[in-house]
């Protein structure tokens, strides 16, 4: 495994990012990959931005990604260099995405949705406990358990989004392929029609020439026949008695 024991911010969002990156750097899957999924968990939160400047957060993020890139560098993982190279490139891409405001907002929305879902679930659990006359105490009251629940729900949401993205890309690729096949078929059809028209015109000219030659030959034969077989009428000699 590439990533172990990274020490960084203790905020909920940093915790989620570290856990996801640490796991997906060394996991193999055809559905969710390091490049396409886990590093979209941009380590920012609306709450933390209230107390920490964006510049400071970027410095912290830069330090985190620097540590991560060192840990997954192919030179330090020569026994698994291919996957290490992919992880190293993904970490670099993730840091660049960190500075993309649109990508950051999308990631924050998903993380926030995961947090709100867990909070709603906890609220419903406590409501049911009160209704049953039991103490409204749940395991998510423990900050670490709550953090773990948010992490799991966030990963689930990102996984669902990733699956939908892949399905959408597959559908778009299929549509592009279909359109391309139709274009090729149209081009081939037009080519066949041009060739047919060309061959038809050439054969038509040949048929016309053959017909003219046939007519000319027929006319010549008739004229020759007329000259050959035309005889003056025979004169009958009168017989004397």
Set out the fold topology.
Blueprint: H1 12-24, H2 46-51, H3 54-71, H4 81-98, H5 101-131, H6 143-229
Helix pairs in contact: 1-6, 3-4, 5-6
List its traits.
mainly alpha; 241 residues; disordered N terminus; elongated; single chain; 72% helix
Describe this structure in words.
The protein is mainly α and 241 residues long. The protein has one domain (12-184). Helices cover 72% and strands 0% of the residues. It is built from 6 helices and no strands. The chain is elongated. The N and C termini lie far apart (145 Å). Mean pLDDT is 69; it is low at 1-55. It holds the Pfam family DnaJ.
Largest sheet: none
Shape: elongated
Distance between the termini: 145 Å
Percent range for helical residues? over 70%
Unreliable stretches: 1-55
The domain count comes to 1
Mean pLDDT: 69
Number of helices: 6
Quick overview:
Residues 170-241 are annotated as: Disordered. By secondary structure, this protein is an all-alpha fold.
